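Hi W.,

Here's what went into the run:
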Amino acid sequence: MLLTIALVTTHLPLNTIATVIAEEKHIVPLDQIVSGGPPPDGIPSIDSPKFNSVIDGNKFLGDSDKVVGININGDIRAYPLQILVWHEIVNDNVGGIPVAITYCPLCFTNQVFDRTVNNTILEFGTSGKLYNSNLVMYDRSSKSLWSQAIGEGIVGKYAGIKLEKLPFDVAYWKDWKKIYPQSKVLSKDTGSARPYGADPYGDYYTTPDILFPVSNRDNRLGLKEIVVGLENRDWSKAYKLQDVEKLKVINDQFNNKSVTLFSLHPIMARLFDPLVNGQTLLFRYNFTNNTFTDKQTGSQWDFEGKSIEGPMKGKQLLRLPFDEGYWFEWAAFHPGTKVYS
Amino acid sequence: MKSSSSAKRNALKRGLIAGSITAITYLLVVIITTPNLPYLAALTAAIKVNGIIVLGLAIAFGVQIYMSNYGKSLGCNIVNKREGIVGSSGSITLSSFFSFFSLVPLGCCGSWLLILSLLPSVLGSAFSVILIQYSKPLSYLGLFIVIGYTGFSAIKLKRELKKIEKGKAQRKLSFMT
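Here's what came out:
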């Protein structure tokens, strides 16, 4: 009897429950927002994060542990995936900006958002629901649902409102601490007892298959190929992270706009606007000193997008945010996406 | 004592029911805990990930129930209820529980992530880490124990059958002489 009740209630699509909770505004079909099982905040977000130094971080992080790293106004912080996997959202203030660091392990989508919407600072939690197998967040003030992958409100007051995405890195701890020895690292003292260090997703990341259906399966790339995705209204383009890593620099056009991707460290890629002083720069990689040189002025640029030598010395490229995640997720949210080749 | 073939039939029926209940219960738990998936997708995923465990537990437990009932019909109690059935059921539960850990990748922030995240408050963080890291071998260990119980029961049943045959032969011999 209990089994039957549980079976029926857990499989009710969102629109059947209370007939769409007073007909809320929504921008995606409600029957595609499904319960993952846990209640809202069953997977608790971290709302008062504490931080350690790199030295203390070394006590629980190995070189090959991955972190999401951000640098906002010189405030540099690393969020280990081994902690994020149990919380999925960190509500933080970095460099004076209220941000949400989010991670959906199933899609390997990492996103950092500015939590300010229409001058209101939102706090996010996990809704316990999924859209396209991706984390659906909710904001605690309006209870609107937000898709983590697209960074957009999908149900409720904020449906159709986009969160501002902020640039971030996914890096190995070994590389991150070398680049930013002054970085702070999220502490395991999160207020929740969790088995940090054990990954509940096991070998999911390394097996090529997925065990759940996706709305748009695209076989141009491997399902779990990690891609860097750019989107602008109806345009979207994906770059294999492996390609960016291999080529070190990609000068490309996206929606008639020039973009440049740099990579100097494994799994780390950065996107820049190459327009400086009205000039669109084209870059090449210097093997000799691990920097980039623009073809127009011969100036040298570092991984931060700052010119360190030549006529452009001191100039800074504008860093742009991008999406990063498994190909199956990108293709599900962006059917018909272009793929860089 | 029932006739041997009818006793076998009855025991087989019970064994099949026990095996089926084991598999059905397992799959029901999968369906309930992965509400984001359509039933068929949840079942396919469970069989893909843990097919050996589901099938192994169902067969081993079914065979054990069959032997227990068949033995009982022959007048011998080959499976001690407390050690055999309870031991097997415990192992089935543990094996199933650990094998469910591999269902976490069926849904972002899904039921099994929630259940696993609650482990440290019951078992402590360090022990929970070990259980999660070694969930796969632990689920196979559980299956191995169930198979072990079944094997042990099979040996006992064989021994009992031999004894019965021997008794029959002796009775036949004494009747002839």
